[in-house]
Request: fold
Amino acid sequence: MDVVNLGDIDVAFRAAGGGDRTLVMIHGLGQDHRMWAEIQDQLSEYRTIAYDLRGHGGSTVGDGEGSLTQLGGDLIALLERFGPAVLVGFSLGGSIALWAAAERPDLVQGVVAVATSSVVGRAAAAAIEERIETFEKGDAGEIYAQILEDTEAQLASGEADAAAVSAERAAAVRDPRGYVNAARAVRGMHEESLNVRLTAIASPVLIVSGERDAWCPRRAAEIMLEHLPQGASFEELAGVGHLVNEDAPDLLTAVVREWLKGKETR
Reply:
């Protein structure tokens, strides 16, 4: 792990691989860079940088504003330090990647948005608010129980160890302020969706969804595709839930690699 200072926060990241092309990988709510470790190792022909969002993993929370704008600004600051890249984001990480692609097209060469939404509905916003309240209370037992419940609901293949994944996620947000900050950013997409910004994205985009994802279902992908410029691609992974990287890491890697190769030949 390495650490770089970006304004009000120190950002932890893991760099791997080599080659002329850089992929920056952005995890979701209540995770850290470790969710990408297996995929980073498989995509060794690329230079990959998986970083921790503010308040997650080894990154400090700083003066968190609880906004997608701030999290997107953190990503832009990282890209200004390491150069233009293709962004690979999971869930909230995909939303952050799409925000950055619209904001700084000069720094974003493409986006792979995995299990992502551009808008949060009323029921989802209420559920996120409940989780914010749990994390603000700070009871470690209640926090872990919520993480385990969510993890079990987000897995579909039956092959991943929900308890092990939950333990890793709990460690990623041992400072509950990081989870609360990011959760507020997610909830903010209820009041202000990303859809208007999607029309401004000039780089190629691949949307990847799990067939059995109840958190970011196929309709979420369809909404994004309705607003993205023509040419955006879509892949649905059969039998896969929300935690795509846990249910089918090899399949996700293959889809990303194939898409990247297609962009290299154009």
Summary: The first helix runs from residue 37 to 42. The CA atoms of residues 30 and 252 lie 20 Å apart.
